[in-house]
Amino acid sequence: QVQLVESGGGLVQAGGSLRLSCEASGRTDNTYAMGWFRQSPGKEREFVAVAARSGGVTHYGGSVQGRFTISRFNGKNTVYLQMNNLKPEDTAVYYCVAGPGLSVDVGVYEHWGQGTQVTVSS
Predict the structure, then answer these.
(1) Cα–Cα distances in Å, from 106 out to 55, 85, 93, 111?
(2) For 34, what's the count of Cα atoms within 13 Å in the CB-facing half-sphere?
(3) Which of 83, 91, 94, 99 has the smallest count of CB within 10 Å of its CB?
């Protein structure tokens, strides 16, 4: 089984930056794709970003394009999300995900972290 451990969430002012990290452990053969979703109260879970195992193929949700950067290093089982120019609407629980392929579909990802809270104040 795969375990995903996240860190880096917190409270930041609008316009500030945070970096989230996620490390996969256990049986990682189904972690070709690793990335992030987020969810705020009353809203659907939203795709944020994903990266292939090589780190060279990435995809971003439209709401974070140009502001967030996903990268994958450290034996390819660690993924980071650099979040710049944060906005109050970025406030959400951010979940690290892993699965067999790149997708914006929530259902594709078999492994989920516990979530880490990101709060952006105005």
Answers:
(1) 20, 25, 15, 11
(2) 32
(3) 91
Query: For residue 55, what pLDDT band results from cuts at 50, 70 and 90?
Result: confident
Query: Mind listing the pLDDT tens digit for each residue in 33-48?
Result: 999 999 998 999 999 9
Q: What's the rounded Cα separation, in Å, for the pair 26 and 39?
A: 26
CA angle 108, 111, 19 (to 5 degrees): 105
Residue type, 80: Y
SS (H, E, C) the chain: CEEEEEECCEEEECCCCEEEEEEEEECCCCCCEEEEEEECCCCCCEEEEEEECCCCCEEECCCCCCCEEEEEECCCCEEEEEECCCCHHHCEEEEEEEECCCCCCHHHCCEECCCEEEEEEC
> How many Cα atoms are found within 13 Å in the side-chain-facing hemisphere of 82?
7
**pLDDT above 80 (res 76):** no
Instruction: Return left, alpha or beta for 83; rule: phi > 0 is left, psi -120 to 50 is alpha, else beta.
Output: beta
